[in-house]
Write a structure and sequence with these properties.
single chain, alpha/beta, TIM Barrel, eight-stranded parallel beta barrel
Length: 329
């Protein structure tokens, strides 16, 4: 079973944004050493607790400081951009880091409405045009546009992925012959039926191509279940409190999280989020992932882990790699 990582560059309350971005780069190095297949970074806008607003810049930094691991976006928020520019950007990354670059594509705003308006005059109109934008991007990346070339053309073209949590995104991936990533960590809908639909409807873009599915999951692993639960608490408090004041704009330390007063509504939100996460010791995490693999037949798992301490995050990924026998220090 292949394992990969998605990192959102969260900013802990003892970090600067630069610290968070450097932590992401070091995590990519760790992922490479531990045998993970790929390392993707997210795109978010106007969110004080997340530092990754321009993934293509961060990917240049990560690519220059790693050697083998695949690197990519999770995701390029395509309605904000011209497909030709996206193709140029990722073709350049593919030229610098041959055979290692993925273009994950999504259509979410990635931030509040005010920021969407600052980024684009016509975001909603572009969302409606998403099918055409996606087809244009595929054509440019594949070098099949007869009018223009999105140079530099890399020796190995980047791989395009469609990201989403709905039948619409699965259908778009199948229609365009793209690999598909289902964001289970941000959806209450179980992905089994959606990825099944994708596989049945898949239309190969080139000879021999087969459908390929990544399931993205929120996981926190520690030596004991109790410690994993403690690490998760900071993240859960942050999610329900981040709009309630400066104290929680960034990911709080455990002491801060534990001292927070939690309302009944907030506790309910935390319980709901927790039910969509995998939290436990290595054996528990391994067992749960294997069960999901049996249910979905996913080709790969992409793991999102958010902890206050970068060391706890790296340790979580280390324990998971060891439990699956992919660790390759």
């Amino acid at each position: 079973m292949k394992l990969s990582i998605l990192d959102q560059s969260p900013i802990s309350d003892d970090q600067t944004p630069k610290d968070a971005l450097e932590s992401t780069m070091r995590l990519a190095q760790t992922a490479e050493a531990f045998g993970y297949t790929r390392f993707w970074v997210a795109e978010h806008h106007g969110l004080p607790g997340l530092a990754s607003s321009v993934p293509e810049v961060l990917l240049s930094y990560i690519g220059a400081n790693t050697n083998r691991i695949r690197i990519g976006s999770g995701a390029v928020l395509l309605p904000y951009y011209k497909p030709f520019k996206v193709a140029e950007t990722y073709n350049m990354l593919g030229t610098l880091f041959p055979g290692r670059v993925d273009i994950g594509v999504g259509r979410a705003p990635g931030g509040p409405a005010e920021v969407s308006a600052a980024l684009s005059d016509n975001f909603l109109q572009s969302v409606f045009k998403m099918p055409d934008l996606l087809k244009d991007l595929v054509r440019y990346v594949d070098g099949k546009d007869t009018r223009v070339e999105a140079g530099p053309m890399p020796p190995v073209r980047p791989e395009i992925w469609m990201l989403g949590t709905s039948e619409k995104s699965a259908g778009a991936a199948a229609e365009n012959g793209l690999a598909y990533t289902f964001g289970q960590f941000m959806s209450d809908v179980k992905g089994k039926d959606i990825v099944g639909q994708y596989r049945r409807a898949f239309k190969p873009r080139y000879e021999g191509q087969k459908p390929y599915v990544i399931m993205t999951l929120s996981v926190i692993c520690a030596e004991t279940t109790e410690k994993a639960e403690q690490l998760a608490y900071s993240y859960l408090i942050w999610q329900v409190k981040k709009d309630s004041g400066d104290k929680f704009k960034q990911l709080p330390a455990l002491e801060t999280a534990e001292s927070a007063t939690v309302s009944l509504d907030e506790q309910k939100q935390m319980d709901e989020m927790k039910s969509n996460m995998i939290i436990g010791n290595p054996d528990e995490v391994n067992s749960t992932l294997k069960k999901i693999h049996e249910e979905t037949e996913a080709d790969e798992f992409m793991i999102v882990t958010i902890t206050h301490s970068p060391e706890d995050k790296q340790n979580s990924y280390h324990l998971i790699a060891e439990s699956f026998g992919i660790n390759n220090p």
